[in-house]
Amino acid sequence: MKVLSSEQIRKADQFTIKNEPISSIDLMERASQAFVTKFLGLHPEKKSVYVFSGTGNNGGDGLAIARMIIERGWEVKVYVVGEEKKGSPDFKTNLYLLPSFELIQDQHNFPAIAPDSIILDGLFGSGLSRPLTGVYGDLVKFLNEQNAERIAIDISSGLYADQPIPDELVAFESHYTISFQSPKLAFFLPESEKYVGQWRVVDIGLDKSFIEAQSSNYRLSEVNEIRDLMPARSTFTHKNKVGRLLVVAGSIGKMGAAVLCARAAFKAGAGLINMHVPACGIDIAQISLPEAMVSVDGGQNFIEAIPETNDIVAIGPGLGTNKETVEALRLFLRSHKKPVVFDADALNILSENKDFLKEIPEESIFTPHPGEFKRLVGEWENDFEKLEKLREICLVHKLNIVLKGAFSAVCNSGGKVYFNPTGNPGLATAGSGDVLTGIVGAFLAQGLVPFDALRLAVYLHGLAGDEAVRKLQTPWIQASEIIDHIPTAVRSLLND
Prior knowledge:
By secondary structure, this protein is of the alpha/beta class. The chain folds into 2 domains: 6-216, 3-Layer(aba) Sandwich (Rossmann fold), CATH 3.40.50; 225-495, Ribokinase (UDP-N-acetylmuramoyl-L-alanine:D-glutamate ligase), CATH 3.40.1190. The chain is built from 18 helices and 17 strands. The chain has helices spanning 6-19, 24-42, 57-71, 89-96, 134-144, 193-196, 208-213, 223-227, 255-267, 282-288, 323-335, 344-352, 370-377, 383-397, 432-445, 450-472, 479-484, 486-495, and strands at 49-53, 76-81, 102-104, 117-122, 148-153, 176-180, 198-202, 218-220, 244-248, 272-277, 293-296, 312-315, 340-342, 365-366, 400-403, 409-411, 417-419. The strands form 2 sheets. Strands 8-17-16-15-14-13-12-9-10-11 form a 10-stranded mixed β-sheet, sandwiched between helices. A 7-stranded parallel β-sheet has the order 3-2-1-4-5-6-7, with helices on both faces. The protein is elongated, with a radius of gyration of 26 Å. The relative contact order is 0.09. The model has no long low-confidence stretch (mean pLDDT 97).
């Protein structure tokens, strides 16, 4: 699913109206019906609803939605903010179809909102490019203080769809957003969280050929395309053909990271795994994971040399950043030409030795959390700039990078970003990243091209976390429990 700008959506509206053809008011009716269908699915029990509409087309959506909910027997009160005579034609048409409404002119006639009710925000849409002031700003602040569920129509009033959030933003703080046709880029960014809440997208029938022709650097991964990435196995295959992986990981006190990484790789289908660990870790590795082969480094407490290999390599979990390990990575990069999976301390070494980046094999994979990413690329002023820095490093160094977090941003070497829809806050736990590295390495070893291996791994890692939270009925989990639920996640993905 493409993530389109507000201007692209506006043009898609116009193109659909002209070429379907369909009148503007009928398209508004279709969009409002799609919203109401989703709204009723989320709210099967009737409550009191307060609809606040501006005088533009987003306000027209709000009025049409109010009418449709009234027709279904709900108690709905409608409030219009702004000058009625300056409203858009479609706003006026829907206003006259309502049985009643009230005008709001200033804070002295803000309505009393009943507790446990629902507020629908239809003041402004995605085209807004200026701060909310005057009665609009005052009203939004008032609504945010109410003991009611707040739902935005398309996007919260005051929130910019495609621009950084300014200081002291005044915007509707939604619990839910039901958006038309395409998610907005702001939905995927941490700084927008309290203005978006949980969000859903409804198809309003905009012209698919026009949307397909639009250029966008951002997409949302969908289950059908992810499912198609799953590697298939021949009846006559064997372990050497379904993924040989070298895991270079661990140091004294951090051998758990190496074990989690290798164990996750096995669960994700790697056929043969060699763990290269310091001498202090051999007993831990062999006892914890008897299925793996273990090669012992010459270093006692940390790795001092990385073996030459033709296998896929995942390096970094629990590695440490000792000077001998840094030199080992330098020598390895000079001779190894296949894409490598870099995580954790391997990324920290690269951050401290930027000259190493020119030696990284093209199409290699980085899996940083925000702190590691900041050490790689420097500070950013806002989440939009962070995404641009992600695209830039991928383009310049021909890398595939996942910037981990909610809606993890998975960027390919061409600068295209795919947001991942799976996962939950339970994944914010020690070792979760080591598990992801193992899954990525497993799929890369099974023959997927690097970006496909990364997208599939990120999706499956999040889905395993979702399955763990659901099965264990707890909001927090351990990294080993993510691994335990990889098979369940695979079944879910294949059977969805």
